[in-house]
Amino acid sequence: MVGVREYSDNDRSLLTFSLVGVVLVISLLLVYIGDIFSNNTVSSVSSSEILSTLGIALYRSILALVCFSTIASIILDPKGMTYNLLDYETKLYGPKRITGATRMSAFTMWSFTLMGVYFAVSSYSSWSYHFGWGVSNWTVSVVPALFSSAIASAFLVTTTVTYMLIPEANQRGDNIAHYFKWDSQLMHNGNVIFILIEMAVSDIELGLWYVSYPVIFGCFYVLFSAFNARRSGIYFYDFIDPRLNGSHIIHMVLLGVMSMHFILALAVQSLAEVNFTSYMLTLVAICYLATTFSNPSEKGH
After folding, report:
1. Backbone angles phi, psi at 93, to 5 degrees
2. In this structure, is the dihedral angle defined by the CA atoms of residues 299, 282, 278 and 194, taken in order, positive or negative?
3. Which residue from 87, 235, 63, 30 is spatially nearest to 154, judged by alpha carbons?
4. Residues 5-51 pLDDT 10s
5. Residue by residue, what is the 3-state secondary structure of the chain?
6. Which of 8, 157, 228, 278 could hold 2 in an S-S bridge, CB 3.0 to 4.6 Å?
């Protein structure tokens, strides 16, 4: 019997993309319907009850700069990096060096870029509010949408790396040193730290209807990966190849997990209304449980 993460005589690409397309259309419809339920205002997306408007504007600006400079340094690094990747033609999984824009194949890069966009747009909103320049109404819709997507993708990246990618690679005996370089640590651990701090200080109000935005982001990445695999010849993650026997199941599970990460964040945010101290302690606990800073292959050496 052919396993879910194995290849069979049946290419599941059409079924997989059909399901992803249906989910994407439904999500877009929910965005259109759910927008009327938003309670956010120019003030809530631009300011903070904990920090001054100037303080949160500076925080967001600094993190936008950190995100974009990190992405740029990775893409512009002429040495590139060797990863274990799936070759599109041979369907073999093994080490391959990639450079330049091809490194954008990783969902981690997409997630960190999204976070940079969120902090850039939200900092613009904060600076405009602080100086009285007049904040455009579009920010009231765009900032929470980016925030919800950034939260879900950051949680997905960090938990997947901590509890799936590093343990699996270490068990196979792969070289996992690249996970503990400064840029990887920033994108795998720093990302969730940044977004948890933002959750602690931001006044943005999230609702269940925002769950569509992370799903839409996930759908776009899936479609990009398939297009990029034909262009670059690699899948960064072997389990998202739509030709796999259980690809349709894997993709629906991943989009479902993306949704669950947002719903978890929404549940955690609701604690702030009950007891702010408990809310802050929960954020610290999530940070501790989600992140990993030590290389398991070096333990005992």
Report:
1. -100, 125
2. positive
3. 63
4. 888 888 999 999 999 999 999 999 988 887 666 788 999 999 999 99
5. CCCCCCCCCCCCHHHHHHHHHHHHHHHHHHHHHHHHHCCCCHHHHHCCCCCCHHHHHHHHHHHHHHHHHHHHHHHHCCCCEEEEEEECCCCCEEEEEECHHHHHHCHHHHHHHHHHHHHHHHHHHHHHHHHCCCCCCHHHHHHHHHHHHHHHHHHHHHHHHHHHHHHHHHHHCCCCHHHHCHHHHHHHHHHHHHHHHHHHHCCCCCCHHHHHHHHHHHHHHHHHHHHHHHHHCEECCHHHCCCCCCHHHHHHHHHHHHHHHHHHHHHHHHHHHHCHHHHHHHHHHHHHHHCCCCCHHHCCC
6. 8
Q: What CA–CA distance (Å, rounded) separates 266 from 275? A: 15
CA distance 204 to 231: 39
Distance of CA 104 to the CA centre of its chain: 13
Q: Which two tokens stand for residue 74?
A: 């990775």
Cα torsion 161, 163, 167, 168: sign: negative
- d(CA 238, CA 267) in angstroms, rounded, equals 32
Q: Are 165 and 295 in contact (CB under 8 A)?
A: no
Report the alpha-carbon distance of residue 130 to residue 227 in Å, rounded: 42
Q: What is the pLDDT of residues 131-190, one digit of tens each?
A: 998 877 889 999 999 999 999 999 999 999 999 889 988 888 888 888 899 899 999 999
